Amino acid sequence: MKDRGVLARYRHLLDLPSHTTTVSLQEGSTPLIPMQRLAAELGGGFELFVKFEGMNPTGSFKDRGMTAAISEAAGRGAKAVICASTGNTAASAAAYAARAGLRAIVIIPEGKVAAGKLAGAVAYGAQVVQIQGSFDDALNLVVAISQQHPIALVNSLNPYRLEGQKTAAFEICEDLGSAPDWLCLPVGNAGNITSYWMGFRQFHQMQNSGLPRILGVQAAGSAPLVLGHPVEHPETAATAIRIGRPARGEQALQAAEESNGRIMAVSDDEILAMQRRLAASGIWVEPASAAGLAGLAHELQAGRLDLKGQRVVAVCTGHGMKDPDIIAQSMPAPRRLPACLADLEAFIVEANQ
Fold first, then answer.
1. Which CATH number is correct for 62-160, 3.40.50.1100, 3.40.50.300, 3.40.462.10, 3.30.420.480?
2. Is 25 strand, coil or helix?
3. CB contact at 8 A, 75 and 98
4. How many whole angstroms separate alpha carbon 223 and alpha carbon 210?
5. What would the pLDDT profile of 82-101 be if each residue is shown by its tens digit?
6. Closest C-alpha to 246, from 261, 238, 264, 234
7. Gap between the Cα atoms of 162 and 182, Å rounded
8. How far is residue 63's CA from residue 89's CA, in Å, rounded to a whole number?
């Protein structure tokens, strides 16, 4: 079977060392889904697409960068990898390390990781350590460990992570024939917004495909790039972007400025409302994944965007199964009926009225 993973498709466009050996789970090639109904609900007059990165092997966009980071580490003979994580990086690092036969060590902040993500890291065989501190504390620790021991750091500070993640921009340009007019996406540790801008700029240089304006969206309770200073105790239901000191913050601000875009914040209520709207269109994403579209809706409602005749791509970074807790806590109990055809028919008729 032909390998269709990120490195197989784009290795010639990625800045990776010659020793890199491919460790793949057939990541990438995620769908670009037209969202006509949601676009109409938001005012219409523009094309809207969702780049659904939740369709990657471990359910999030992290797999694109992780295949590159683990492939480089394995190629130079590393025996172990380490990362700090709010969940998605943990699962991805654990999966690709397992694929490569490497030891994976994952450091998570206490009480701040969705169960679905933690379960993934454990299932793939990672050694998980929970610290009494924030994600930022965890990141500081793993950086220090990687500098003192022969353990490969695979957080987005690793430059090869960005090389892998920028391939999503290549796919969008290939699917559309050019870059979109706007790209909107969540911003947490800011590696993804940085890598998308890298990818669009590179594709533009190769194909003269145009460049999008970028709308980066943070959660209001965890918005250091909007506030202009670190957030010591970030809080948001969107756990994947609950980060107070983004490792790639400066690059994210630069990407927004160079693209003539911006970085903004929306409330948890807006994020969760957009999560429900996406599900109503058949796309279930984790809360953080809805932040980009929540920001787009916010700006449209405020009259700060004119999208007439334009194409917009929203990046949804993770599948809803990665963080189902909010849905599970609020969903009503299923209707209980006897195993009787007449009762079922009566219920269906009643529900239609």
1. 3.40.50.1100
2. coil
3. no
4. 29
5. 999 878 999 999 999 999 99
6. 234
7. 20
8. 8
